[in-house]
Amino acid sequence: MKAKILNLENKAVSEITLSPEVFALEPRVDIIKLVVDWQRAKARAGTHQTKTVSEVSGTTKKPFKQKGTGNARQGSLRSAQMRGGGVSHGPVTRSHETKLPKKIRKLGLKHALSSKLLEGKLLIVDSLELKQAKTSLLVDILKKFTGKSFFFVGGEELDNNFSLAVKNIPHTVAVPQIGANVYDIIRHDCVLLSTDAVSILEERLK
Do residues 160 and 64 share a domain? Predict the structure, then answer.
């Protein structure tokens, strides 16, 4: 399948043949969701934790005598039912990561790319290079493309000037091809791949 190669002025300069195995699949939302859920779970810090009875500071002395006060009997101020006491069955520090086969992860990336191309929101650009590391220069370039958020995927390495220029632009992310992922592809309005990224991704995902 053929696609136009654009420059950063959003003008067609040539054509490229895309692999149908990577860019022309019938999008499967279920597979995309599986990979996105796996990514988001893996990104969680998992540092939430509450204190148990043994970890709460305080005395272990019986707060008041067993009988005669009219209150329910209590053995400690650190018990779960007491104000300021420990928490029963609360969250503990743990990993939220789940397992997902590599084949499914690869398939998810293929379906995400195919979905964006089908929507007309995946563009191929000849290169991601800037003469100067100026944010204003890149902002002017982005005005020529449609969308409120952009995801750039470069080749093996990202151009240093481009990488510096993109840092101060909200809702805009640029990564080398190894950083291409389903979540970022799906959540951004416009995905722009360099020709180097296309050839490497095709080789990686076939």
Answer: no
Question: 77 and 155 share a domain?
Answer: no
Coil, helix or strand for 108? helix
Query: Distance (Å, rounded) from C-alpha 36 to C-alpha 107?
Result: 12
Same domain, 159 and 72: no
For residue 35, the Cα-to-chain-centroid distance in whole angstroms is 10
The boundaries of the domain holding residue 165 are 2-45+98-205
| pLDDT tens digit at each of 206 positions of the chain | 899 999 999 999 999 999 999 999 999 999 999 999 999 999 999 999 999 999 999 888 899 999 999 999 999 999 999 999 999 999 999 999 999 999 999 999 999 999 999 999 999 999 999 999 999 999 999 999 999 999 999 999 999 999 999 999 999 999 999 999 999 999 999 999 999 999 999 999 98
pTM: 0.85
| Total of domains in the chain | 2
